[in-house]
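Standup notes
- HV: blocked on the assembly model, inputs below
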Amino acid sequence: MLDRRTFVLGAALAAATTATAPSRAGATTAPVRAVGAAAIAGTPVTLVRLNGVWALADGTGSVRITTGLEHADVVDLAEDGTGLVAAGCLADDPMAALWTSPDGVAWREVRRLHGTRAGFTAVAGALALGSVLRGERASLVRVAARRTASGWTTVPVRGLERTDGLFASALAEGPDGWVCAAVGTSGTRLHSSRDGVTWSELPGVPGVAVRGLVADARGIRWQGNEIAGSAPLTGVLGGAAGPAPVPADAKALGPASSRFAWLSAGRLLTT
Amino acid sequence: MITFSTIDGTPVYYWRSSRGDTAPRNWQATQDFHDTLVLWLRDLRSLSSALGSVAYLVSAGFYVNKPGQHGEGTAMDLDHVRWSGGAVCSPLDRDHASGTLATRRRYLAVDAVCRRRFRYVLDGWYNADHADHVHSDFGGLPVRCLKTSEADTKFTQSLCNDFLGSGLAVDGVWGASTENAFTTAKSRLGVGGDPHTSTAAWQAFLSAAARKGFANQAF
């Protein structure tokens, strides 16, 4: 069933930026770039980039300018048990970083990988995956960070070190451990791990760029867009796959709790 | 983001699920990237006109919902080019590693045409992930030949090997041997200026190399 929460990010953000920064009034609204999805008190949210500002957009029409992400190039967003965690790198200097927030509006950097060109590209709860980057920003070697009692710490990921040039595009934790996705030219490769350290390959999803995963008692469900054509698709690993019940232009954002979030014509949808 | 099935009138197919498929595909990219693709294709047509017109292209993706330039709608993965005269260049078939010199030269010619418009061009010599396609994106512009770039250096080394017989190790390290071979290549192609700092000089070098590649001529 489609739960359509109608709001238009461009209009809402224009209003928000006008209210908070009068000098921006009248600025041209750039195309919406939304990254990741999560839920706050059951409400789906995503981070959107418009006019050089990161804002939190929720499913009720509210768009709020964030603080603490001014120098962030955010790639993914997830719930971490107490609030939200954002993954990416510093905007002008590709250095992998993680940020956390209790409310999705006020953010604080909690981890930065110094001394290497890298970026985190997928996060779920207490685990973040990324890549050390070559000069042309191609993926070289996988990096991972895990949240411990003392903060986010880099950890090994055996069986997942070689990226084959691919970036992690989705990550989920379920009752049987972790599952992650990485998109290549022919489809998505999936790996699973019981402990988040030792990984083994699962059957892939050909022809689809998987951008969201949910692992629960029903199995491993995925959402994504066709590589050729970008049609929104959902499926169950090892089971049925087909068109997602969203408009044809919808882009997969990731899971918001147990539902999948999509962006379509500036609207956040969940299925 | 715009949707397109052709670039400047030339169809773009998808073969990753069914080789030879000529069903129209609805690709997406930003308007700016699509505009650059049009310029790139016009370069390709002009520089390879002896092979006929470009009948069709095959891609493994433009906008693709994943991290990086593909997710921004500012990248292309090129699998195959087919000309009306019957010639092909097929990165999908790993033409960069072909045992036939003419095939490698044509691959390098297409590679060179990509570099005229895109700074980050990742080819079969760059890494295993790009063994079966040529990736081009909007990163790192403007176009130049950077000695510190692994991608640029490997391309230059491969070019010198297959057109000058330089015998260079394709290791991505711009050392004295690569420098000497590149200087010779520039001289033989009659290219002035400094391709390391001048976009025009680098584009002139690439055009001259591409012409030789499409004609299967050493320089």
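- HV (later): unblocked. The mean pLDDT of chain B is 97. The helical segments of chain B are 31-47, 69-72, 101-117, 150-164, 176-189, 199-214.
- Next: hand off to the docking folks.
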